[in-house]
Specification:
mainly alpha, 2 domains, 3-stranded antiparallel sheet
Amino acid sequence: MTIYTCPYCGVELQNENDTFYCGFCEMSIKSEDIQENGVRKQIPFLLNTVTISDTEQNTSQLMQRSTNELIVMLRLVRQKRTDFYNYLRVLNKAKGDFQEHAELTGKDYEFWTRKAWVLENILRDRTGSFPERITDDYLAGLAARADKINRKSMRIRTKNRTKS
C-alpha cells in the first residue's frame, strides 16, 4: 500500500481537496515534492550534467542551482580562470604584437575570477564555507554521501510490544 509522505519529515500527508498537507511541518506540500512510504526526496549528483556554459548564467540564475551543481561549476570556473591566467602570463612575456590579445585575455581572466567569487559566495551563504580544492576524490566523496543519504528512509521503526 502506498502512503504519501512529507519530503522533509516523513509523516503521512493529509489529502484535503487534492492539496497535500503535513501536520508536523504545518505546511502544504507541492505535488512534485510528495514522497511515498517515508522515502527521502532524491538528490541527484550527476557530475556530467554541468558544463562550463552553465556557469555563464547570471547570479540570480546560479542561486537557483543546487549546491552540488555549484561546487562542480566552481571547479570548472577555477580551471578556466587558471587557463586564462597562464595565457596572460605567456602573452605578457611575449609583448610586442600580442598586446591586444593580452588585453582581451586579461578581460577573460577578470570575468572568470569574478564568476569564481560569485560561486564561492553563494556556497558560503548556504553552507558557511566553500571548498578550497575540488579534486576528483572530493567530488566522488560528495556523490557517495548523496547516494547514502538518498537511501536513508524517514520511517520510524517501532517494536510490537505486548501489553500485560
